[in-house]
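Reminder: ligand-aware prediction takes two inputs, not one.
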Amino acid sequence: MAKSRQAAGNPKSRAPKSNGSSGTLKAVIADLVAGNRILYNEGVVDGFGHLSARDPRDPNRFLLSRARAPGLVVAADILEFGLDGEPIKAKAPPIYSERFIHSEIYRARPDVHSVVHTHSPTVVPFSVTHEPLRPIRAGFFYPEVPVFDTRDAAGWTDLLISTPALGRALAEKLGNNSVVLLRGHGNAVVAATVRDAVYRAIYTEANAKLLLQAKMLGGPIKYLAPEEAEIMNAARTRVRPGHGSDRIWELLVSEAMGASGKRKR
Ligand code: MN
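Here is what comes back for the chain with manganese (II) ion:
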């Protein structure tokens, strides 16, 4: 902890420049490694869950860790996959059974360059009730947060998205939204960059917590209006160094990389 505080306060430790779809391979892998650690540190993933990025060199490929707990992922764990969800190299180590969440979303959504799959605990109640996950702070919840149910697509299963067909059905349910819930299981969150996908996965969990708390207080809830979400989204696309995700990424990297094992929640 002391180490991470020192890093956070060090003026020389600047946040690396944001990596969009044109980011170099090395920079994207660095964000993937940091993103895995951050998602673990923030309590959004546990031993399970994963984060991927579309390959900046080839839109028909994506980058994802070998089957490993996100809190332990290092650059050497990152493997390259085709949009069929299979590793490019023939002799690959064990891989995630739910990689088809990633492959089929990349296939369906050319605008998406990063995908997160989590078992984010507070979103799960919204996947098993008729209570929709609506935005209090998370403007990216618009147009909506749909719920995908494996039962509708494939009957009785173990709920895992472990085939291309289930991945396709999930991608179809996601549609043009940024978050889709998986019934009794978790969610998939998408964005144009790794950093935004990580940010959205964290704020999806945070928004779900706030909504549960608001429901406990009772009475009608004033949700974030679509008009407000639009203004927020427009502000986020303006490049303002030191603001928005730029600021939070620097802090999150410092905490997650400096304080490995010091999980917040
Ligand atoms: Mn899962």
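Strands lie at 50-54, 61-65, 78-82, 114-118, 147-148, 179-182, 186-191. DSSP finds nine helices and seven strands in the chain. We will return to this case in the review session.
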